Amino acid sequence: MYAIKPCSYTDIENIYSAQDSCDLVHSMHATMHINIHSLPSKHDQLQLIIRRLNNLKIELDYILLCETFLNESNQALYNIEGYNLITRNRTTNSKGGVAIYVRCNISFKRRNDLEINIDGEFESLFVETKINNKNTIIGEIYRIPNTSELESIRRFETILDKLAKLNGNIIIGTDQNFDYLKIDQHPNTNSLLDCFLTAGLIPMINIPTRIVHTSSTLIDNIYINTRVHQLSIQSSVLLTDISDHLPVLLIYKTSLTQHTAKTPIKVKTRKMNDDKLQQINNSFLQTNWDILDNDDMELAFQSFTNKLNEIINMHAPEKLVTIRFKDIIRNPWVTTGLLKSSKTLDKLFKNQKNKPDGHPTRLKYAKYKSQYTRIKRNSKMKYYSELISNVKSDVRKTWTILN
Q1: What is the pLDDT of residues 245-271, one digit of tens each?
Q2: For residue 4, what pLDDT is reported?
Q3: Which residues of 251-289 are buried (b: 16+ CB within 10 A; e: fewer)?
């Protein structure tokens, strides 16, 4: 068995001081797992974490999320500049869901054959990429709490059996909802660990990841196989205020991409100007809208949407545009002051942990968080309001901003 390197709690800005066993270089790469418990409400905060890590020259190659609360209609709103978003959303309600952000300069493909998904019980998502021409599997697994433990173990085992047959690197983030702090008292938890170890995967997190005022549990983890373990790696649990689960981070010296961090990104866009808008308007007026005469409102709406997309694509088709690395704008609404406030919030978050209700540190944290949330929202609204206001007389520039 391979020894697990010591894992520690750390503030984001102090992360390097915690890397005693990691031979630091000028630029590091990392994978992060979070049970984010609603990506829509934590999207801005996630981007701030990415920005703060980037300021430390730590590039997040993969961001593994569970409990995203995304669906097919809203997931496009939660892209992050410089990343591709892959999702598996729950189909029966708005909760749950898993997702992976992959940096745009990393080639990948979806591995549906490795996934097991049962709404309300078990969710997983896998992609395949490469480390130095060696196949690499990146995955996220979420086992919903209060479901059959034995059935969950069988599902984990089915996935792990498939992974064990692959010749390559493996990194899996998970909220498994089996508490490794109780492994000696809970046979099923011990069985799950045996499944991972049998498949050649070791857990990199060995300290509590969900700390509430009445209990602490170790239910989030990142597993790696022995090939990845041969890299210079350090694991950390980040003390940052984003979810009731703390983010877990894996930092490694070797990049999980064959390209440099300065690779350009490609995005889809439309060329919009006054002439294009007039052409779309003319086609809209000339269209026979009898397709809307349908008693089924859902079918009528779908017909309208399809026709509208057809008209727009005819006059302003989507094109793939390459953006040079130096021209990529990342969260322009994130000011220096906002980053500083984010750091202060994390310090207050750390201080109030395990304090009883009504304790001065908890009250101070709650008050500051409310103020911080308001400032963050106002900063974003002010930036985009001014941006659109400055070009309101120029339709083309307005469309450029919206795109």
Answers
A1: 999 999 886 544 444 445 555 666 777
A2: 46
A3: bbeebbbeeebebebeeeebebeeebeebbeebeeeeee
Cβ atoms of residues 97 and 68 within 8 Å: yes
Q: Which amino acid is at 150?
A: L
DSSP state of 17: G
For 342, residues 6+ apart whose C-beta sits below 8 A from its C-beta are 45, 48, 52, 372
Give this prediction's pTM: 0.72
Q: What is the pLDDT of residues 197-230, one digit of tens each?
A: 999 999 999 999 998 877 899 999 999 986 655 5
> Is domain 8-252 given the CATH code 3.10.20.310 in the classification?
no
pLDDT score at 228: 58
Tokens of 397: 């520039």
Helix (H, G, I), strand (E, B) or coil at 3: coil
Residue 357 CB-density burial (10 A; 0-12 exposed, 13-18 middle, 19+ buried): exposed
Question: Quick one: three-class SS letters along 134-203?
Answer: EEEEEEEEEECCCCCHHHHHHHHHHHHHHHHCCCCEEEEEEECCCCHHHCCCCHHHHHHHHHHHHCCEEE
